[in-house]
Design brief:
The protein contains four helices and 13 strands. By secondary structure, it is mainly beta. The chain has one domain: Beta Barrel (M1 Pyruvate Kinase, Domain 3), CATH 2.40.33. The strands form three sheets. It has a seven-stranded mixed β-barrel with strand order 1-6-5-11-8-7-13. The chain has a three-stranded antiparallel beta sheet with strand order 4-3-12, with no helix packed on it. It has a two-stranded antiparallel ribbon with strand order 9-10. The two termini are about 25 Å apart.
């Protein structure tokens, strides 16, 4: 079991989000009051390609352990700074299979849809940050460490200090793909 370290949202399309006391997750929408909430895709670059795509990126989660790793590389990143809604600790987000459900707090449930595909906005925020969140595994595959994306299955309020409980999917696990 892990823990929520911080929650954040922004009503405007900007890279960083504001850390707040709590966020409300809404089924089929995402974070109430966040610019990326909605049934269809809300990320500006993706809207330009196809605005009818389903929104598989309603909630962005990052593990706090990534921030600790980035500090060793000279990047002082705080919760919300690189666009995540939920910062966790003690959960191997990148190691979860697709369709894993995360219970956040008392009632909220999200389903992991894929890994965040890092983009040039990371370098606009801090030069070199995009490369810092990418790593080659021994087998040559690229590991994207900038968090995971999820959809909301059950509504609820999420606060720092809330528990994160993992429910793995049944059947053969499918590794997370970039979305």
């Amino acid at each position: 079991m892990g823990q929520v370290v911080a929650v954040a949202r922004s009503g405007e399309h900007r890279f960083s989000k504001d850390v707040v006391d709590e966020i409300r997750l809404i089924v089929g929408v995402g974070v109430e009051g966040d610019c990326h909430g909605g049934a269809s895709i809300q990320h500006l670059s993706r809207i330009a390609r196809d605005p009818t795509q389903p929104n598989l990126r309603q909630v962005h989660l990052i593990h706090e352990e990534l921030f600790e790793e980035l500090r060793t590389k000279g990047f002082d990143i705080q919760p919300g700074a690189i666009g995540e809604n939920v910062t966790t600790r003690g959960v191997d987000l990148l190691g979860l299979p697709e369709a894993t459900r995360l219970r956040l707090g008392e009632t909220a449930v999200v389903e992991v849809t894929g890994v965040r595909n890092p983009c040039v906005q990371l370098d606009r925020y801090r030069e070199g940050l995009m490369q810092a969140v990418l790593e080659r595994r021994p087998d040559g595959t690229l590991l994207r460490k900038s968090g995971v994306m999820a959809i909301v299955l059950e509504s609820g309020v999420v606060r720092a200090g809330d528990a994160v409980r993992i429910e793995l999917p049944t059947g053969d696990p499918h590794p997370l793909r970039p979305i």
